[in-house]
Specification:
Blueprint lengths: L1 H26 L18 H6 L28 H5 L7 E6 L2 H12 L5 H12 L1 H6 L2 E4 L4 H7 L3 H13 L2 E2 L4 E3 L11 H8 L3 E3 L1 H7 L3 E9 L3 H12 L4 E9 L9
Parallel strand pairs: 1-7, 2-3, 2-6, 6-7
Antiparallel strand pairs: 4-5
Helix pairs in contact: 5-8, 9-11
């Protein structure tokens, strides 16, 4: 009886705090992450929210690019580039386009140590990659090399993957995949240069191999630029025994995949 009373009291206290927080938000609206304005939705100011280009269905199943129109039941589910040269990962989803509107938010999170963006971006991905999350057995963040982790102090992909896995009730495997080679920055490199830069950069740990074997893995990263990093991670996971690897990111550049010439 006493245990039951304590449990009821705890639930009542939690409910009271939620009601109090809701009332406080009405009186003092929560501030936006990107400015000192009151947040319009999902933690963004009205101006920032209106400028972000969110990717809505239909999208390419292979790279997450938006199709210009819905081709109907008989349309191909992949763009010409993905049909001609599929990625090493199976499917991909992106929450939004990586452009002037989203870049500043992502860079504040990634390089500005503004970790309050993590749950916001996790919610974005939970919407855009809902189908991939439903089929995933576990989530794996793209890792940073330990030297870069020391300077940055946190792995942006891990900070997104953790709340995403918790909300989706999926296994979170932050140590399954490691960046074994301290590669140079991918910035400014061609697609081929990016692939070569990360070709042997990632490895699956022995403990990670036991936890991914035979399972469908959802790889989490911040931005899909050419797909080189995600492909290198997917190959390492597949070689270690993963049944399949999909990808979910905050944003993708419009030219991540170019049609074959």
């Amino acid at each position: 009886m006493k245990a039951g009373m304590r449990d009821w009291t705890r639930r009542a206290a939690l409910a009271g705090r939620e009601v109090g927080r809701g009332l406080l938000d009405i009186v003092l609206p929560p501030m936006a992450h990107d400015s000192r304005e009151a947040a319009a939705a999902a933690g963004l100011s009205p101006d920032a929210w209106s400028r972000v280009i969110f990717l809505e269905a239909p999208v390419c199943d292979g790279c997450g690019a938006a199709f210009e129109y819905d081709g109907g039941a008989f349309a191909a589910d992949r763009c010409a580039a993905c049909l001609a040269s599929p990625y090493a990962f199976g499917r991909a989803r992106a929450a939004c386009v990586y452009d002037e509107a989203s870049r500043g938010l992502i860079l504040k999170f990634k390089h500005g140590d503004q970790q309050q963006f993590a749950p916001l971006f996790a919610r974005w991905i939970s919407r855009s990659a809902a189908d991939l999350l439903a089929e995933a057995d576990a989530l794996v963040p793209v890792p940073l090399h330990r030297t870069r982790l020391l300077t940055r102090r946190f792995n942006q992909a891990a900070e997104i993957a953790r709340p995403l896995a918790r909300a989706a009730q999926r296994d979170y495997l932050p140590d399954a995949l490691v960046r074994a080679v301290a590669t140079e920055s991918q910035g400014g490199r061609s697609a081929r240069g990016r692939r070569l830069n990360v070709r042997k950069a990632f490895a699956v740990t022995p403990a990670g191999a036991r936890r991914i074997r035979g399972r469908r893995i959802l790889l989490i990263d911040d931005v899909l630029t050419t797909g080189a990093t995600a492909e290198a991670c997917a190959r390492a996971l597949m070689e270690a025994g993963a049944r399949a690897v999909d990808l979910a990111v905050i944003a993708r550049v419009r030219t991540a995949r170019e049609p074959p010439k």
